[in-house]
């Protein structure tokens, strides 16, 4: 009986860890929705995932344990300068990247916040 309870506890802990902490986290992501204006951005996803320790810090408004790619919720809009109302709550992908990345960098007082800190200007490569 005791062996059965220990076995059930072990399997439960193993399943919890396997589901709560995905192992298929990509180390680097190439963000290239602005490729016609700026070079792509190599985003160190593994580093940021390890640093935050909580996927929901970035993969917000998702079901628990779900980590959809940003583009699954945020539309890749090709307009770069908006006139009029800001696109809340369905902010475009560019805005989502910038708000998430630069917002955190400003809050932490660490990390790039300028355009060419992350993007290489097209034509200078």
What's the arrangement of strands in the largest beta sheet?
1-2
What order do the SSEs take from the amino end to the carboxyl end, as H and E?
Answer: HEEHHHH
Q: What class, by secondary structure content?
A: mainly alpha
Query: What distance separates the N and C termini?
Result: 67 Å
Characterize the main sheet: 2 strands, antiparallel
Strand content: under 5%
Could you characterize the architecture of this molecule?
- The chain has 125 residues and is mainly alpha-helical.
- It has a single domain, classed as Alpha-Beta Complex (Cytochrome C3), CATH 3.90.10.
- 41% of the residues lie in helices and 5% in strands.
- It has helices at residues 2-20, 45-52, 70-73, 93-108, 115-118, and strands at 29-31, 41-43.
- The longest helix is centred in the N-terminal third of the chain and has 19 residues, at 2-20.
